[in-house]
């Protein structure tokens, strides 16, 4: 198969981002993640399959979704008239979202080829050149679609477009080895220092993640470590993380405070929110944390 024809599944392409690497960037969000962080801001990224979001306040009760659905997943309660989706029947075909003019149903996920995505990346080339920007591959976990990712990185490299890979690092080293020569920058998430805490917060231990980070650092990769600061969940981990990062060669460390955007998506996907105690950390606490990182010689900042 030609590199340009390699398939992948994404759920968004965000233009003009200034938060995910240097300059003005296009961010390509891959669908599918192998961690399940309690506070995840992008719950629509977790499943590798296409899904439908339902916003009941927009529903006008036209019933078109019932006609369109091949599996009978859309049902109206005969007594209350409430519209329910039996998600266990949903195959992710998105026919219902395509027929819902009221936009009460929104499809999440798009099957694409590397060429489809690359054309959209190229649209904003002028902005990358003017701002020192480029493209960031994110997710979900973009490294769970390594062949698709590698194709896109190669295509960008051939055109001189700066690339960043935003990863949680929970994949085998062999995938890093394959993309390392094609990647200009890694945005690498670190969420907890303690193995058991990491497991409780994300569903997986952090041994592989930290091993990969150390190997990337030793290989001379450009790395920005990003730490989500989730007050009520991982605020007790900052000191431990700083000690782990101090010996590594990093471009910088960015601390990203928890925010509440994305909470409404849980309901739209029929999922429960899982971090009810999460709070936005106050600026003074973030400043103090940054100072503690800097005291260990780590170039840190917070957003
Ligand atoms: S097609 Fe949209 S507006 Fe019509 S009943 Fe279904 S969800 Fe509601
Ligand atoms: S995505 Fe397809 S299977 Fe799922 S509810 Fe909509 S029409 Fe039915």
Question: Any chance you could write out the topology, listing elements then pairs?
Answer:
Blueprint lengths: L6 E11 L7 E6 L20 E4 L9 H5 L5 E3 L6 E3 L9 H5 L5 E4 L1 E4 H9 L2 H7 L2 E5 L7 H13 L3 E6 L5 H7 L5 E5 L5 H8 L4 H12 L4 E7 L8 H8 L6 E6 L5 H6 L14 H13 L4 E3 L1
Parallel strand pairs: 2-8, 8-9, 9-10, 10-11, 11-12, 12-13
Antiparallel strand pairs: 1-2, 1-7, 3-6, 4-5
Bound molecules: iron/sulfur cluster (2 copies).
The site of one iron/sulfur cluster has 14 residues, from helix 2.
Supply database-style keywords.
single chain; 303 residues; alpha/beta; TIM Barrel; Alpha-Beta Plaits; 2 domains; nine-stranded mixed β-sheet; two-stranded antiparallel ribbon; 11 helices; 22% strand; globular; binds iron/sulfur cluster
Per DSSP E runs of 2 or more residues, the count of β-strands stands at 13
Estimate nothing, just give the exact number of structural domains.
2
End-to-end gap: 42 Å
Strand order in the sheet with the most strands: 7-1-2-8-9-10-11-12-13
CATH fold topology of the largest domain: TIM Barrel
What global shape is seen? globular
Sheet-strand content, in percent, reads: 15-25%
What are the bound molecules? iron/sulfur cluster
The sequence of SSEs as H and E is EEEHEEHEEHHEHEHEHHEHEHHE
The proportion of residues forming helix, as a percent range, comes to 25-40%
Question: How many strands, which pairing sense, and closed or not: the largest β-sheet?
Answer: 9 strands, mixed
Judged by helices, strands and strand pairing, the structural class is: alpha/beta
- Reading off the top of the CATH hierarchy, the class of the largest domain is best stated as Alpha Beta
């Amino acid at each position: 198969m030609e590199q340009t024809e390699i398939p992948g599944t994404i759920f968004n392409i965000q233009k003009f981002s200034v938060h995910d690497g240097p300059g003005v960037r296009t961010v390509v969000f891959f669908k599918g993640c192998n961690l399940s962080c309690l506070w995840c801001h992008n719950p629509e990224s977790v499943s590798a399959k296409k899904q439908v979001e339902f916003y009941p306040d927009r529903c006008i009760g036209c019933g078109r979704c019932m006609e369109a659905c091949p599996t009978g997943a859309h049902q109206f309660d005969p007594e209350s008239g409430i519209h329910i989706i039996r998600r266990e029947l949903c195959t992710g075909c998105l026919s219902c979202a395509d027929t819902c003019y009221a936009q009460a149903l929104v499809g999440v996920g798009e099957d694409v080829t590397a060429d489809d995505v690359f054309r959209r990346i190229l649209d904003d080339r002028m902005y990358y050149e003017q701002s020192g920007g480029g493209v960031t591959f994110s997710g979900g976990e973009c490294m769970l679609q390594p062949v698709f990712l590698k194709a896109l990185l190669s295509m960008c490299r051939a055109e001189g477009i700066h690339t960043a890979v935003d990863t949680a690092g929970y994949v085998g080293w062999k995938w890093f080895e394959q993309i390392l020569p094609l990647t200009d920058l890694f945005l690498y998430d670190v969420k907890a220092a303690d193995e058991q805490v990491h497991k409780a917060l994300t569903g997986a231990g952090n041994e592989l993640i930290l091993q990969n980070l150390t190997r990337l650092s030793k290989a001379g990769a450009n790395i920005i470590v990003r730490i989500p600061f989730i007050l009520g969940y991982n605020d007790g981990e900052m000191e431990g993380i700083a000690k782990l990062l101090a010996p590594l060669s990093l471009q910088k460390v960015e601390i990203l405070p928890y925010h509440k955007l994305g909470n409404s998506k849980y309901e739209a996907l029929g999922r429960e929110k899982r971090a009810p105690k999460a709070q936005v950390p106050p600026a003074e606490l973030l400043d103090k944390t940054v100072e503690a990182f800097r005291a260990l010689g780590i170039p840190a900042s917070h957003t």
